Amino acid sequence: PSPSRGDRIEKDTITHSAAVSACEKGEAWTLALELLHEMAENSVEKNTITFSACVSACEKSGRWAPALHLLLEMVDKRVERNAITFNAAVSACEKGGAWDWAVHLLREMADVCVQRNTITYSAAVKACESGGEWTLALEVF
Question: Residues 55, 88: contact at Cβ < 8 Å?
Answer without folding.
Answer: yes
